[in-house]
Amino acid sequence: MSIPAVVPAPASLDPRAGAPFRLTASVRIEGEADAAAALSALVEARTGRTLAGDGNGDGPTVTLAIERSGAAESYRLVADEASVTVTGADPAGLFYGVQTLGQLIARDGDDWIVPAVAIDDAPRFAYRGVMLDVARHFHPVDTVKAYIDHAAGLKLNALHLHLSDDQGWRIQLHSRPKLTELASSTAVGGDPGGFYTHDDYREIVAYAASRHMIVVPEIDMPGHTHAVGLAYPELVEEPVIAEHMREEGSELPETGRPYRGIAVGFSSLKIHDEATYDFAADVFGELAGLTPGPYLHLGGDEALGTSDEDFALFVARVSAIIADLGKTPVAWHEAGDAPDLAEATVGQYWGFVKPTDGMDEKARGFVRNGGQLILSPADAIYLDMQYPTGPTLGLTWANGPTSVQRAYEWEPSTTIDGIDDSDILGVEAPMWSETIRTLDDIETMAFPRVAAAAEAAWSPATGASDLRTWESFRARVGALGPLWTSLGIGFHPSGEIDWATE
Asked: Assuming Cys at both sites, which of 75, 168, 182, 352 could form a disulfide with 97, CB separation 3.0 to 4.6 Å?
């Protein structure tokens, strides 16, 4: 009996003997309206057919219900010849059960079926994210919404927006209007920039919420702040030009001029100036009012021109500002050894699957401080790394190129010694945009590797399930090719995968 193609792998999947459920014109969807609408859209995209929806009659039914028991975001799906029933422990769980049902739909000659199966499923980690860098290249609201749709279909529940960097500032703030007036118009290579108004940002947040995702805004500091200096030059230090930047022929930053290159680490806010912390309070205070989710990300990576002592002072003060707003601070792993970091700050680890240069020790500092970790190993799930074969998009610095198999074959609980599941908030797959200009670029670089990240975040640990193997994953993800095509996802047809055509 073949295993149905579900990604990420469910906690329990039991193929049943017996005839499948047939998606005929008489099928009715009954139950929760939002889930029914989501399922109807999936069915129509996959099959071209419109189901009858809620109503009375004696035909076969798909029943969608919430039964408030079980773990958060969990669901149960049972399909047989007579009916399909999906029950969620909460609205999110029901939504994820619907996504699974959409993946189960298969062609049978001229008909469409759902195989007989029983699935009990719940997430391994509470936080399952993607990050989109809209600072190096700006991506409009419709692009962000499309990425939300694609990510939610893989049971990812957080969108981390990297809203500021040396190349541009991307969020309107009434408290600091010069940021968008003077620092938002450019991008890498001199491409046009852009920014989100308050209404744009609220639209993104609301759209994400409708797909059971939170938005995590990041304002990177004290480094990656050259654009801040275009608007408020009194807040920033002179650029620190490293010798490697000269040797590599990188565009060198100049005070007061937009930066169009991709070098990092040369910029810094003024650590010992109280105006800097007034700025941070304005920025994060306004963002807190716009962001219903629990997290605000302060960045803190690659502050190469800042001394360790100044960096520790800065992240301690800014994390306290965020905590005082009633939000949980998030910082990249460099901040983990700051002695006065706000308690329970979440760390985001971007080092390699096999840590180098003490990155793992810094990451463990967040746990010692009462926080947890988000794992984003760059040589596994940085989605902007080049593929071994395929498009020339992307970079290679993180031990790249990065294959789909490498994106899959890592285990969160063994990445950092001394860190187990209780210390891990979740997994996030970042998409940096130095070379990423369009939605097509995003989809090509994300799919299928984002599905590997989703499985690391949702599914049982490696070795805890027969489904958690590379061979199982490549077969299951290959079977999703027709669904992704019908949903308009321009995935990279990696030769590592045997792609189904129908």
From this structure: 75
